[in-house]
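ugh ok fine here u go
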Amino acid sequence: MLLQRAGLVMGALYALVACGPGGNDACSPDLGTDPNNCGHCGNACGGGYVCVDYACIAGECQPGMVEECYTGGPGTVNVGPCKAGSRTCLEGATWSACDGEVTPKQENCTDGIDNDCNGMIDEDFDLDGDGFTSCAGGDCCDNPGICTQPELVNPGAFDAPGNNFDDDCNGVADDTLLLCDQGLLSNSTSGLDFAKAIDICQQTTDTEKRWGVISGTLSLTDGTGTPDPRGHAIRPRFGANALPQGGVSMAILSSGAAAGKTDLNPSPNSGNTYAHTVGNSSPFPADFLAANGGTLPNAPGCPAPTGNSARDAEMLTLRVRVPTNAKSFKLFTNFYSYEFPEWTCTQFNDFFVVLLDSTYAGDPANPADKNLAFFQPMGTTAKVPVGVNLGHGDTGLFTQCVNGRTGCTFGAVAGSISTCISTNLLTGTGFDDPASGSCDNNSLSGGATGWLITQGNVVGGEVITLRIAIWDTSDQQFDSTALIDGLQWSTEVANPGTVIGKEAPATALPGSIQQRYPSWQPSLAKSE
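structure:
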């Protein structure tokens, strides 16, 4: 038996030697490159492998091969000037670039040539139905011969970063303007300045098709009146560590003073609570209230808000034409409140809302009451508006605070919190002032959520209205403040609502000044 097995092994080795390089196998003229007989007869290379130097290796092609190639859209080759080229398989078994091909380009409209290879010369049509024609309309991709989704490419689109394509047809790929908030006055009363502060960098009109902000106003929560000038500001930072999430500035709305402890124009109020005393009040946003059955929604288990007016109200309203290729947007927010911790889970649940008016009717749906600033506590299906009452019961929303007791004053529902991870973003804001005895000996004057991400869905090309508002509920004391920044469009639908972002400033976000200039340090708040 051993001799028989040894004979079989020797026979196999002889066959390999005889059929390999230099052997006498005549099944192929070149065992070194034949993928069906690679190295010896019958040794066929499998899919995705080619024969190089008598061995099967992973590769796209057999080195030395030359074939015709064309990378233009279907149906455009040999139409107008478009023609195929050729490519060669290189030594590493990969294809070279397609040499000599001519692919479709934007229609010139004045040269008598069918530049986009669609069978028509100098046409001015809207073949993709996006509302922009190829010539007078400036559509640089009106047919699938140039790009795969021509209906998303036109002068009304935003230039989606990172796709190496000129989405907005301005002649330059990936050049979306991300920095437009330099030099804005801290005490500006222009709604358009506040649009720039949250990084909406393009303006347009009701009659223009390009995307951008059409109008911006600051008002009370019913859309009328003039809010207190100390309740809104544009800042390069809030306190010591809360930095912009995009660009160099951010918007601040407050039911008290939109200022850290050392800020000017406006400056902070005096006293630990920084209580607002001007008393600007207005009805709640009517559509938001009606959608909630005529009462303000509230965190489960907490006393309902009282009163019928928004105290010390501040609202920024922006009308914006959406880019034609956008399906959603997100912005970054950070909610602070002096109601935390002792007045947590009381009737004094100050409100912060982001109300979106859009024609979007798809899935996932925007909230029926239009408020995107809602949070779903961990382990629940409840959708609760962002507010200080979400600091009760370890919902997970408040992270910039001191762990311990909450709701330890008269009329409050007693509780505790263990989700605080830092007080970094409170430093220098006034919310970090010691308040010993407010629930615990180490309590501070307030707390914050940390950076949140708020998202909503839109329809490309529509005009949306975005209302961002804050107000005191049930009284005018112990104010709340919201930071708003970094609005970004997306070509994908989103899950509407608000989720927890990052504890520290997101220095790597696209367009942030820290990403572009790592050595940049924010200066003190402007005092113009």
